[in-house]
Amino acid sequence: QKEVEQDPGPLSVPEGAIVSLNCTYSNSAFQYFMWYRQYSRKGPELLMYTYSSGNKEDGRFTAQVDKSSKYISLFIRDSQPSDSATYLCAMGEDSWGKLQFGAGTQVVVTP
Amino acid sequence: GAVVSQHPSWVICKSGTSVKIECRSLDFQATTMFWYRQFPKQSLMLMATSNEGSKATYEQGVEKDKFLINHASLTLSTLTVTSAHPEDSSFYICSARPRDRAEYSNQPQHFGDGTRLSIL
């Protein structure tokens, strides 16, 4: 069993819809949770960074962490075609150590 | 914002040659750099962690004699794929952790744009 599970998709939504992404994990020591966006043949770009459980909102993006269920989510409101990319969750035990990545979910937002 | 530059962005070479990939932090000092490998439609897999001035720490299953890492300064780390073979073809991505704690408290790692390596 992988330490971080993420549905690879693809997830196709119409423009303006809410995109809902999630990851589950098995290591209860994870404290730091991130969501990255990766366009084809580019490096990951950090979208959200949260510590421990709770919600965090930044513009159209909302990240949720439920440590009791070992489940994290990312919501993208009012999705745009430019949001089409692969979204990777990542997590770590501390803020300076190595990260464990999910497989990434490919998102396609259709006009 | 903090920028990490990788060079080259794409390289094609014959089987058996060695290839060097550079990772530079352009506007900050990085005490730690991470090297990842990503196969098509798969996630990033950490290969090794390099700290400035010391030997790299390799993940299980990664051959340290094949993937040579040098972190000679606070702004530069290099990955050399020695005697590359077609199975080494992949997307190699580096990331850098800022030395300044205030810098990385908001973003623990800054990623480069990756190097696409194709071995014929």
Kindly summarize this structure in a few lines.
The complex is a heterodimer of chains A (111) and B (120). Chain A is mainly β and 111 residues long. Chain A contains no helices and eleven strands.
SSE arrangement:
The complex is a heterodimer of chains A (111) and B (120).
Chain A: E1 4-5, E2 11-14, E3 19-25, E4 32-38, E5 45-51, E6 54-58, E7 61-66, E8 71-76, E9 85-92, E10 100-101, E11 105-110
Parallel strand pairs in A: 2-11
Antiparallel strand pairs in A: 1-3, 3-8, 4-5, 4-9, 6-7, 7-8, 9-10, 9-11
Chain B: E1 4-7, E2 10-13, E3 19-25, E4 30-38, E5 45-51, E6 57-58, E7 67-73, E8 76-81, E9 90-98, H1 101-104, E10 110-111, E11 115-119
Parallel strand pairs in B: 2-11
Antiparallel strand pairs in B: 1-3, 3-8, 4-5, 4-9, 5-6, 7-8, 9-10, 9-11
Polypeptide structure, described:
The complex is a heterodimer of chains A (111) and B (120). Chain A has 111 residues and is mainly β. Chain A contains no helices and 11 strands. In chain A, strands 2, 4, 5, 9, 10 and 11 form a 6-stranded mixed beta sheet that branches. Chain A has a 5-stranded antiparallel beta sheet with strand order 1-3-8-7-6, with no helix packed on it. Chain A is globular. Chain B is mainly β and 120 residues long. Helix content of chain B is 3%, strand content 52%. Chain B is built from 1 helix and 11 strands, in the order E-E-E-E-E-E-E-E-E-H-E-E. In chain B, the strands form 2 sheets. In chain B, strands 2, 4, 5, 6, 9, 10 and 11 form a 7-stranded mixed beta sheet that branches. The mean pLDDT of chain B is 90. The chains are: A mainly beta (111), B mainly beta (120). Chains A and B meet through strand 4 and strand 5 of A and strand 5 and strand 9 of B.
